[in-house]
Design a protein that fits this description.
Layout lengths: L5 H5 L7 H15 L9 H15 L2 H10 L3 H6 L28 H7 L34 E7 L1 H6 L1 E8 L6 E8 L8 E4 L14 E7 L6 E3 L2 E8 L1 H6 L1 E7 L2 E7 L8 E4 L14 E7 L7 H13 L6
Parallel strand pairs: 1-5, 7-11
Antiparallel strand pairs: 2-3, 4-5, 6-7, 8-9, 10-11
Helix pairs in contact: 2-3
């Protein structure tokens, strides 16, 4: 059996800690992955890197490899004793070959993306499929890696919070599980919700965490500006000129506001405390921008009155 120096393959020292080995594997796996590197020898190199990492990432396998070299796997199968046929052999610093190496490209994505394939996204309700996003890699001592996914909320859900059920699908096994998630009141786009123990499974049975990254869906009624909201209120030309009480929709329901006489398009009415929750329990404001609208078609009487107004008024807009 030919000797393979797994430490040399990954470019690390024999006493390298687990995180250094993991870092070296990630770097080399990115470099030689056949989807990235089209060189003829890239695939073989990628498999060799995976083979080395498969052994060195596992404390038990690594210990056997350090002790028995090429015969480490047979030693493991015999309960840790000297494997048959190797009695009296000086293992020294030798390493061993690994017949059942990790030629599967999935190990690359399992490491880089926490067990999930890149590109998966979390949707609303039962449409939330897969762990998506980017995994954070395995933790120390066999603890599973943290994983990140995206969950999309309506503006009302983000403001009011509450409970949501999401269904996760493991991309490797196809197994599905449903979790109940508490959405904090006033959560912002870009913030994350941590679900402890719902990430990638670890070798010792202790799973990592799942982080749900918040996306807030666009709302046709409002534009978000920090803790403030912006909306529009439509008024007729005569209402803008004479003033009027108009109804404005807020997240808490409709309210009546006074449109001052002589208002032009672009003027903003501030409704204090009708925006998004902020630190300290206060809320931002809702800014209602006036938009003057005119009828697309005029009746004969309307046209007559507008013409009379045009003749009588000295006002010029330009």
């Amino acid at each position: 059996m030919d000797y393979k120096d797994y430490y040399a393959i990954l470019g690390v020292k024999k006493d390298a800690p687990e995180d250094e080995i993991q870092k070296a594997y990630r770097k080399l796996a990115r470099k030689f992955h056949p989807d990235v590197n089209k060189a003829p020898e890239a695939e073989a190199k990628f498999k060799e890197i995976g083979e080395a990492y498969e052994v060195l990432k596992d404390p038990d396998k690594r210990q056997k490899y350090d002790q028995y070299g090429s015969a480490w796997k047979r030693a493991q199968q015999t309960g840790g004793g000297v494997p048959p046929g190797w009695e009296g052999f000086d293992f020294g610093q030798g390493g061993g070959g690994f017949g059942g190496g990790s030629g599967d490209f999935s190990s690359f994505f399992d490491m880089l993306f926490g067990g999930a394939r890149p590109g998966a996204r979390g949707g609303r309700g039962a449409g939330f499929s897969g762990f998506g996003g980017q995994g954070f890699g395995g933790g120390g001592g066999g603890v599973g890696g943290d994983t990140e996914a995206t969950i999309s909320l309506s503006l009302e859900e983000a403001v009011r919070g509450g409970k949501r059920e999401i269904t996760l699908s493991d991309p490797n096994t196809g197994q599905r599980k449903t979790l109940s998630v508490r959405i904090p009141e006033g959560v912002r786009a870009g913030q994350r919700i941590r679900l402890a123990g719902q990430g990638q499974a670890g070798m010792n049975g202790q799973a990592g965490d799942l982080y749900l990254k918040i996306e807030v869906e666009p709302d046709s009624r409002y534009k978000v500006d920090g803790t403030n909201l912006q909306t529009t209120v439509a008024v007729t030309p005569w209402e803008a000129a004479l003033g009027v009480d108009a109804e404005v929709q807020t997240l808490d329901g409709p309210v009546r506001v006074k449109i001052p006489a002589g208002s032009s398009t672009g003027r903003k009415i501030r409704l204090r405390g009708r925006g998004l929750p902020q630190a300290g329990g206060d809320k931002g404001d809702l800014l209602a921008e006036i938009r003057i609208v005119v009828p697309e078609k005029l009746s004969e009487r309307e046209r007559e009155l507008f013409e009379q107004l045009a003749e009588a008024s000295d006002f010029r807009a330009r």
